[in-house]
Amino acid sequence: MHYDSIKNEHGLKHDPFKALVAPRPIGWVSTVDKNDVLNLAPYSFFNAVSERPHYVMFVSANRKDSLRNIEDNGEFTCSISTMDTRDGMNISSAQVDSLSDEFALSNLETAESIFVKPPRVRRAPASLECRLWKIVELPDVSGDRGHFIVIGQVIGIFIDDSVIKDGIVDTASMQPLARMGYMDYAVVTPETTFSLQRPQVKEDGTVTVPKGDWDGIYR
Q1: Whole-angstrom Cα distance, residue 104 to residue 96?
Q2: Among 3.90.1530.10, 3.30.390.30, 2.30.110.10, 2.60.40.1930, what is the CATH number of 17-194?
Q3: I need a surface site. Which of 11, 88, 89, 128 has the fewest CB within 10 A?
Q4: What's the pLDDT score for residue 144?
Q5: Where are the beta strands (DSSP E) in 1-124?
Q6: 207 neighbors 196 (Cβ within 8 angstroms)
Q7: CB-based contact 15:31 (threshold 8 Å)
Q8: pTM, whole model, 2 decimals?
């Protein structure tokens, strides 16, 4: 099939877009409002967008509590959602009123951040502490709701020592969750993780890929 994605006349049961751009990491965003009420919400349009300096972004459809709190306070955290915390992540996505504390609703404990006010999820193996850089409003062809890109600079990072092995982060051991389309999720495990050596360009312009395990040099 091939269709006009502006008109979105795909003829399927549901829009397939998110099922195609997948898997996507989940931004489990924690914020605090003006009255110190905690908010926790997962965002499926989330990713790292820069390495030096470290920047992350997530997209809010409509002016949700996370967006309003960040506009007011300029800070947020992104905790890593894992297989172990999947139920809490799912419950925290509920569309409750702004006075509800999703940490309490999801039966999740908080842990104090160092560089920002919003706490992280205590059971999360890693968390990014972020300061707002910019909010960009995207045009919406439907005209009935806005989409906002929230871009934050990562100014602090927490990593649980248990996932650091041989001097590097063992991502697979965290079993991070990813969002697919519809109601589908995926999980990274040691069994589904593999490494590829970086290709090397020879003097004659040909490209070769070293065989064997990664040599530990980050190229």
Answers
A1: 12
A2: 2.30.110.10
A3: 11
A4: 63
A5: 24-25, 27-32, 38-43, 46-50, 55-61, 75-79, 110-111, 120-121
A6: no
A7: no
A8: 0.91
Q: Where are the alpha helices (DSSP H) in the chain?
A: 17-20, 65-73, 86-91, 102-105, 171-174
CB atoms within 10 A of CB 99: 10
Task: Take residue 161 and report the two structure tokens written for it.
Answer: 């020592």
Q: What are phi and psi of 192, to 5 degrees?
A: -105, 10
The secondary structure element, H or E, covering residue 178 is strand 177-179
Tokens of 210: 């070293």
Distances (CA, A) of 127 to 36, 70, 82, 89, 213: 20, 17, 12, 14, 29
As a whole-number percent, the residues of the chain with pLDDT over 70 amount to 98
pLDDT per position as a tens digit, 136-170: 998 877 666 789 999 999 999 999 999 999 999 99
Residue whose structure tokens are 């007011």:
72
Distance of alpha carbon 36 from the chain centroid = 23
- Sketch the domain layout of the chain as residue ranges: 17-194
Q: How far apart are CA 64 and CA 100, in angstroms?
A: 13
